[in-house]
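User: Is it possible to get a 3D structure for a protein together with its bound compound? The compound here is biotin. I've pasted both below.
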Amino acid sequence: MIPADINQALVAGANRVGLFGDRLRFFSEVPSTNDVAMGLAAEGAEDGTIVLAESQTNGRGRRGREWFSPAVAGLYFSIILRGVYSPTITLMAGVAVTEGIRAATGVPVLIKWPNDLVVEGPCSSGKKSKISKIGGILTETCQVEGAADAVVIGIGINVTTTEYPTGFTVQASSLENEIGKKVERALVFIEVLAAMSEWRLKMLQGYEHAMLDRWSELAPMSKETQIQWVEGNESRHGVTKGIDNEGALLVFSNEKIERLWAGDVEWRDSAAQLDSHKGYDVIRN
Ligand code: BTN
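Assistant: Yes, that's possible. Here is the predicted structure of the complex:
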């Protein structure tokens, strides 16, 4: 049964969430909402179907990482979209989730390329600012006979105050940790759906450039920024030059512009521990 807080918020926000209003499938526990959504998409589930779970036993992050998903501590859901197959769909999801969280909580969430949801803490050492991750997005494509049939956008948002695993390049935090008071998860859920509904429509109407502009406003790396990343066994660094219209990150490095497609990049002064990234390659062309 859909939890009462989520149900009430869905009813109250019905006129803002568009097609997401009546397509929610709720589970108390699943291995991964993305896995369930991919299965449903392959069986022909409708555009706008949402799989929401109270907890995940095998929550998956990008690049094969685990997504910590204890019961009630966060929002774990996956949205099936059909008919929007742009390579920038994952950036659209980042914009929608960021706007939704901001609208629901006022937390000044930022996007770290490609779509980590982060908050910038106070400058503790005088010049370095602390970056904490409060959410992430895992986009997967369901293919039928070699062609994209549906896109599954998996969204994880850390909501309550919880002990998060340590040892990552970017430490996890939660909305409640950042704001210092209780956050209504249902409100966050509805605001994310409302923003997703709006941006999905704009993408379908051809306003992809407006979405990319909005992404750039919300992502500090769209401005010239010193970054570093690991490629094979090599530490690389460069200066960001924004994104292109396919969502690749443009980086000036070794006297030329490179296009980074996927992977992990870090701010050069954000206490990055590149060792923890060994084995993860940045894909570029
Ligand atoms: C990342 O930042 O690495 C992406 C994390 C995505 C986590 C969400 S939680 C809901 C959905 N189901 C999953 O197994 N993963 C995504």
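DSSP finds six helices and 14 strands in the chain. The helical segments are 4-12, 33-42, 89-105, 175-179, 185-204, 208-218.
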